[in-house]
């Protein structure tokens, strides 16, 4: 009896954790993509700036 209650409680915790993780994923993914895009643009701007100042000659 006690074993069954523990298993049911763990199952509810697992389901709740999975739902929270799915919800959180839709918050984390756009933030991650925005940060990645920001760093990409900073990298491009840095390359263009270095090229204009002739520090790199490509």
Question: End-to-end distance, in Å?
Answer: 73 Å
Mean pLDDT: 88
Give the number of DSSP strands. 0
Beta-strand fraction estimate: under 5%
Percent range of helical residues: over 70%
Summary of the model, kept short:
The chain has 58 residues and is an all-alpha fold.
What would you note in describing this structure?
- There is one protein chain.
- The protein has 58 residues and is mainly α.
- 88% of the residues lie in helices and 0% in strands.
- It has one helix at residues 2-52.
- The chain crosses the membrane at residues 24-50.
- Keywords: Membrane, Transmembrane, Transmembrane helix.
Write the layout of secondary structure elements.
Layout lengths: L1 H51 L6
Keywords: Membrane, Transmembrane, Transmembrane helix
Task: State the main characteristics.
transmembrane; 88% helix; 1 helix; mainly alpha; single chain; membrane; 58 residues; transmembrane helix
């Amino acid at each position: 009896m006690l074993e069954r209650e523990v298993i049911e409680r763990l199952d509810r915790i697992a389901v709740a954790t999975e739902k929270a993780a799915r919800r959180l994923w839709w918050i984390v993914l756009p933030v991650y993509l925005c940060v990645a895009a920001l760093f990409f643009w900073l990298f491009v701007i840095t390359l263009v700036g270095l090229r204009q100042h002739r520090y790199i000659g490509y």
